[in-house]
Design brief:
Elements: E1 4-7, H1 14-22, E2 26-29, H2 33-51, H3 79-86, E3 91-94, H4 97-111, H5 120-132, E4 135-136, E5 139-141, H6 150-160, E6 165-168, E7 171-174, H7 175-182, H8 193-198, H9 202-232, H10 242-247, H11 251-263, H12 265-270, H13 280-283, H14 285-307, E8 315-316, E9 323-324, H15 332-360, H16 387-402, H17 425-459, H18 465-468, H19 470-479, H20 491-502
Parallel strand pairs: 1-2
Antiparallel strand pairs: 3-5, 4-6, 6-7, 8-9
Length: 518
């Protein structure tokens, strides 16, 4: 476990959410006096309004379309627990531990901004759950993205009161049991607190933060794989000339070209191109990857703004406690970001699949053996190399491309037409995660194909280790792939490589002077 991140002292970056999610850092509620005072002041505004018999949506009224139903004062205290319980209808695959930590961190970051009316005790318990790694089991399906992620977040709210199941020390148990083992105590939800926890965008935004980091890794890996494919095909490194990208100066596109150019430096010096113009999946790779690279700063701004926002309803003005009824639970920005990201990432899968198809096909691979088989002699006819791997690449790519239909345009009127225009942000985020998984699988397959192609070229004497350059040589050594001579199952190798890509463990540094910002 790395350093603590004190939530509430500063805005969280996407990298902070990633570090918390992956266990590289531990989140806790800041104990800074100004942070605690901000939270306490907001809770005090709710108490003062109730003491004056004020009407506050979701505090002494019903929820959603039931906002016209007044709740008698004697049962106001029971209302928050009811909200957690009737939203306990989620289904589908549970969020992973990493995703759950991201969601919890993002929700805590919103609650401590001092607009949501929660108590220090609730914020502290949520922070303690993160610190002790007590993770509510959150089903991924059941949110339309407005009023926020009500149903999935109800599993956090329910856990805070000791109900619902959690994962703790690798075991599933009740939240109450996990609290007992760690010396924590459940809270009794105060007016507005269940709504504050549930009525926000934390699930879609937590998933979006993790998706962003994985997409950034894929962008870099695709650049390196393009350089390796160029070497394997004995292609033309001059397609990545800096002068070309000065003529069409999209900065991300130019950065991708610079990465590929740096990887091809030794190859370019020693190699005479065999074709004047390579096929588009090589020649235009910076233009494909570069769109994602240029959009990452835009997507980052949207995601980080959402992370560091108060996004429930109603909000309470921190200065005077005025009740502000609005719609900040609407996840439109995250929906757009994730719909965009999944299109950009699926294009990477398509690019890699086409590069792989060139490498295995003797009509296009410039003298490499069919299907990159390393078999020679009398057993060559019965060995088929990477034939099935390329088929699998196309299958994963087709599925990724199929999932690029934007979720945000499929708004459904729900909840007695109170929620009559919704964001679908959580579905968009889940789609993006699935597209990333499929593209990471395709990238893992292309790693195998590229490494095999380079080894075949070296065996034939057309390529030397020195021409690879230090970064590509490092990646090949790190990947620990056998030379494929006899046909062999590759599923376990693919799983290992895919997991490493998803966890951002690949060595993807570049030589000095290449602009590769985080």
């Amino acid at each position: 476990m790395g350093p603590d991140i004190a939530v509430g002292e500063r805005d969280l970056r996407i990298e902070d959410v990633w570090a918390i999610a992956t266990g590289a850092a531990r989140a806790r509620l800041s104990d800074a006096p100004e942070v605690l005072a901000r939270i306490a002041r907001s809770a005090g505004h709710v108490e003062a309004l109730l003491a004056r018999d004020g009407v506050i949506y979701g505090v002494n009224t019903g929820y959603g379309d039931s906002c016209t139903t007044d709740v008698p004062s004697e049962i106001v205290a029971d209302l928050p627990l009811q909200l957690t319980r009737f939203h306990g209808c989620g289904l589908g695959q549970m969020l992973s531990p990493a995703q759950t930590r991201a969601v919890m961190a993002v929700r805590l970051a919103a609650l401590v901004r001092g607009w949501s009316g929660v108590s220090i005790a609730l914020a502290q318990l949520l922070g303690d759950m993160l610190a002790h790694d007590i993770l509510p089991l959150i089903p991924g399906e059941g949110s339309v993205g407005a009023s926020g992620d009500l149903t999935p977040l109800s599993y956090i709210a329910g856990a805070l009161v000791g109900e619902r199941a959690v994962l703790f020390n690798g075991q599933t148990m009740s939240a109450h049991a996990a609290f007992a083992l760690t010396g924590l105590s459940p809270v009794r939800l105060r007016p507005k607190e269940a709504l504050a926890v549930m009525n926000g965008t934390a699930v879609m935004t937590g998933l979006a933060a993790l998706a962003f980091m994985r997409a950034d890794q894929l962008s870099r890996l695709c650049a390196r794989l393009t350089a390796m494919a160029t070497m394997g095909l004995q292609g033309n490194p001059r397609h990545f000339d800096a002068r070309l990208f000065a003529a069409k100066p999209h900065p991300g596109q130019a950065r991708v070209a610079a990465r590929i150019r740096a990887d091809l430096q030794a190859f370019d010096t020693a190699h005479a191109p065999t074709r004047l113009q390579d096929r588009y999946s090589i020649r235009c790779a910076p233009h494909v990857i570069g769109v994602l690279e240029d959009m990452l700063p835009v997507l980052r701004a949207m995601i980080e703004t959402e992370i560091n926002s108060a996004n429930d309803n109603p909000l309470f003005d921190p200065e005077d406690g005025a009740v502000l009824h609005g719609g900040h639970f609407y996840g439109g920005h995250i929906a757009f970001a994730m719909d965009s990201l999944k299109i950009l990432v699926a294009n990477l899968a398509d690019l890699l699949d086409r590069q792989c198809a060139l490498l295995v096909d003797t009509r296009f691979n410039n003298g490499l053996p069919a299907n990159l088989s390393g078999a020679t002699g009398p057993r060559a006819p019965i060995n088929h190399g990477l034939k099935a791997l390329q088929i699998a690449c196309s299958a994963w790519t087709a599925e990724a491309l199929k999932l690029t239909m934007p979720a945000s345009v499929f708004s459904r009127s729900t909840e007695c037409h109170n929620q009559d225009k919704v964001s679908m942000g959580t579905i968009a985020a889940r789609d993006a995660v699935r597209v990333l998984e499929l593209t990471e699988q395709t990238a893992a397959a292309q790693v195998i194909a590229c490494v095999q192609a380079l080894r075949l070229r070296m065996r034939a004497g057309a390529l030397t280790p020195a021409m690879l350059g230090p970064q590509i040589a490092q990646l090949i050594e790190w990947a620990q792939l056998p030379f494929i001579e006899e046909d062999t199952p590759l599923d376990q190798v693919l799983r290992r490589l895919t997991e490493a890509i998803a966890e951002r463990r690949w060595p993807l540094d570049w030589a000095d002077g290449v602009d590769c910002p985080a």
